[in-house]
Write a structure and sequence with these properties.
The protein is of the alpha/beta class. It is 23% helix and 33% strand.
């Protein structure tokens, strides 16, 4: 993991695109988009139906390694409000074990708004939370001056290197905003330099990439 200081707190970037807040033993992830493949299948676009299992396996591996006491999911945890009903029995069992073992909080997003999560999946549901002075929400609010962690945009850093186009999920940081990449195994991404991301985080934003134990920073055009 790679250390990141933000809003007066120390976090660790987990290689899979999560944040670990050691002082709280809190794991923070965004945009799992569980049951995305099954949502596409309902519309006739058949995709391999393994995205939820893969995403939850990654999450279970991190939980096993770090033993967090809290898990915060920053919205769009399911791809649609009916997603929890389509979870396989095996995936549901994994999820229920995770939510039972931790203080698990679902922050609602635009995709999973209205989903009934607590009955079938466990955990607690919040629209927004404030934890040790840091706001946790799904989509960054440019008008809120408080330090904030969010998701929603699925940021990816796209660069040309040695004639090759490289795209990797990244964090985007501004003065008071930190946007997490999508954690889900079946998620696309928005260019970290996209104007909508710039509008959300403000001027002098940076894309943050953890590589080989180092934190690389890439300035993004205002």
């Amino acid at each position: 993991m790679v250390r990141l200081s933000f809003a007066g707190h120390d976090f660790d970037i987990v290689p899979q695109g999560a944040l670990y807040w050691a002082s709280r033993r809190a794991l923070i992830v965004a945009d799992l988009h569980l049951e995305k493949a099954s949502w596409f299948a309902r519309g006739g676009q058949m995709l391999p139906p393994y995205d939820s299992a893969a995403t939850l396996a990654d999450l279970r591996g991190i939980v096993g390694a770090l033993d967090p006491a809290e898990i915060w999911c920053l919205g769009d945890s399911f791809h649609d409000a009916a997603g929890p009903d389509r979870l396989s029995a095996d995936a549901r069992a994994v999820l229920r074990a995770l939510t039972a073992a931790t203080r698990w909080t679902w922050i609602t997003g635009n995709h999973d708004a209205g989903a009934v999560l607590t009955d079938g999946c466990g955990g607690m549901v919040r629209d927004i939370a404030v934890v040790d002075g840091v706001v946790l929400r799904h989509e960054a609010d440019p008008g809120d001056p408080r330090p904030e962690l969010s998701g929603h945009f699925h940021p990816k850093l796209r660069v040309q290197q040695r004639g090759r186009h490289i795209s990797r999920r990244c964090f985007v940081a501004g003065a008071t905003k930190l946007i997490l990449p999508a954690f889900g195994s079946l998620t696309g991404g928005l260019d970290a330099a996209h104007p909508e991301i710039a509008r959300a985080v403000g001027r002098q934003a940076e894309a943050l990439l953890a590589v080989d134990g180092r934190l690389l920073r890439f300035a993004l055009a205002a």
